[in-house]
Amino acid sequence: MHGLGNDFVVIDTRARPLALTTALALRIADRREGVGCDQLVTIEPPRPEDPGSVAFMGIRNADGCVVEACGNATRCVAHLLMEEAGTDTVTIGTLAGVVVANRAGADEVRVDMGPARIGWDQIPLAEARDTLHLDVGIAPFTDAVAVSMGNPHVVAFVCDAEAQGLAVFGPSVERHALFPARVNVEIVTVREDGRLRMRVWERGSGITRACGTGACAAAVAAMRRELVPRGPVTVLLDGGPLTIDWRVADDHVLMTGPVATAFTGVLDGGLLP
Ligand SMILES: N[C@@H](CCC[C@H](N)C(=O)O)C(=O)O
Asked: What local confidence, expressed as pLDDT, does residue 263 receive?
């Protein structure tokens, strides 16, 4: 499946448990030898600690590491589970917390991604720093904004996001000592029409065509800096637009966007044990 070209292999392990090792995840995610994807996602039985959830969503980046959140994959898994149950809403457990999703159109899903976390220790940063004006020491991240959506993000505002060498500075920012859990890296231009143009270097996956949690982080960062008014904003990714609303009532971030299924079937070819 994919959300705006951010693509996933989604494996339903509810009926058939899967011992997913890092080595196996790496093989499946490998675009040369495996199926190939930005993230590998498992649908698992619900955990007792996730109240109201019908399933747990496990997420691994293409480098095999387990991560807490993935906005685009959450829309995809929510869509699958709502189709399966014939409902318009679904509650899913993730390592970042329990999220609630709703249908927002034929192939559109809205997810309440929960609160944005902005404390330095919530990102996390290696030391106490101002997350609204963060100097990472690598241009253009000399006055950046750090936000956690359950996973860590750092956002730099630039005049022209297209002109930036994301593949050059992305890896250095991702692994900078200031970010002990590494970080997802976003460059954002605030357009004259009020929309945000964002490009992303994802932790553990590199440049992707879209990042849902990254779009949430970019919108929160722009609103914290008062570059756009608090309320719904369109974030333009390489793969298309997402609508992000940082709700005033409870500080939750709502993400609305499309879901697409590329292929459904049996993953074999010797990949699974
Ligand atoms: N593509 C995702 C984010 C996936 C996880 C991220 N690379 C991380 O390491 O935190 C999204 O749509 O949010």
From this structure: 80
Distance 85 CA to ligand 1 centre (A): 26
> How large is the ipTM?
0.98
Annotated binding site for substrate: 6, 39, 61, 71-72, 151, 184, 202-203, 212-213
What is the pTM for the complete model shown? 0.97
Q: Is-catalytic flag, 70?
A: yes
Q: What is the pLDDT of residue 143?
A: 98
12: which strand partners? Answer: 43
Q: Which of 155, 264, 166 is nearest to 220 (CA)?
A: 155
In order of start, what are the domains of the chain with their CATH numbers? Answer: 2-112 (3.10.310.10), 115-254 (3.10.310.10)
**Cis peptide preceding 115, ω within 30 of 0:** no
Q: Of 122, 116, 115, 147, give the one whose Cα is nearest residue 134.
A: 147
* Distance in Å, CA 3 to ligand 1 centroid: 12
